[in-house]
Amino acid sequence: MLRLRERIVSHLLSSPSAPATSPLPRLLSAAAAAISPNPAGFVVEEYLVDTCGLTRPQALKASPKLSHLNSPANPNAVLAFLAGLGLSGADAAAVVAKDPLFLCAGVERTLVPVVEGLTGLGLSRSEIGGLVSLVHHCFRRRTIVSKLKYYLPLFGSLDNLLRMLKRENHLLSADLDKVVKPNAVFLRDCGLGDCDIAKLCIHGPRMLATNPERVRAMVACAEGIGVPRGSGMFRQALQAVAFLSEEKIAAKVDYLKNTFRWSDAEVSIALRKYPVVLRKSKGSLKRRSEFLISKVGLEPVYIAHRSDILAYSMEGRLRPRYYVIKFLRQNGLLDRDLSLHTAVKMTEKVFVEKLICPHKEAAPHLAEDYAAACKGELPTNFRFT
Q1: Which residue, 295, 349, 301, is CA-closest to 318?
Q2: CA separation for the pair 249, 266 (Å, rounded)
Q3: What is the pTM of this model?
Q4: Which tens digits make up the pLDDT trace of 240-254?
Q5: Which residues contact 137 (CB under 8 A, 6 or more apart)?
Q6: Distance (Å, rounded) from C-alpha 202 to C-alpha 160?
Q7: What is the C-alpha separation between 180 and 159, in angstroms, rounded?
């Protein structure tokens, strides 16, 4: 066992990117215990607390999954492996708490080959350590290497892939050949590029891991709301209807018609312009309707043709910018017919440069009032009669 531990630590720390000194003397000294044969009275729960650093409640929860262990030999080798990857004591404890069976993984048989495979894909030692913390249970399967080999080019970068995995890691357990690849091919046939598929998965991580027949049904739903395959809004439409039943989609369409006073034709226009409106909560839609129609005075048909206005925050964008435009117009400071839709689509920098800064002398408090309005306050100058 001593030779095993020395080979593991030496292998892991031999890379130039590895730290010069081990950050985990406690874990490495624990790994040294693997030299001894099965110690008398080995108790899993106590090992998890004393050696792995779990809390007592965590150890109580984890120990039933490790009841077959009667020696610290393999767990010590695993802790040495994690130490070699640079995981801190807290990080290693988090891995064990979330996935107790990680302590049973074969280091030379599984974990070291996985590290070698991922290194061959261009991952650094620290990136591999971060991956262990994120997808611990998938890391103890050698198939993770072939899956990352497929996913890295698809997502364009490790950062993009990790963004998706932080939300959900179904893709690492899905069948690559029977599920993931057929779904990717079908989505490409629908006009989506790899970049679109990656964005789709970041918002809906289960998309590629879903039964291919269900993905085809989602595409049919996206077409059903008036967004054809190959159109610029198709990805957003697919994102909007994903995992929603036809009944829920129909109910939301009816709500949109009633709330914004839209006809069938107008709601179709709105959905084609901004399909993700289907994902907005009823409360947020009601507040926007009351503000845009009752307060601002916009016509329902106008909103339908510019439904992307519903994407913007009421407090941070719609209401403050409406106040600014109305203030400037009432004080004769707006020399052109600027619509609220145009104003809310401006970046913050452009909006301030065009509508705030030019009026520092005529309206010295405008910048302060606008900033207050963005925080949800209603400055006196914005209280119109």
Answers
A1: 295
A2: 16
A3: 0.78
A4: 999 999 999 999 999
A5: 98, 99, 101, 102
A6: 8
A7: 20
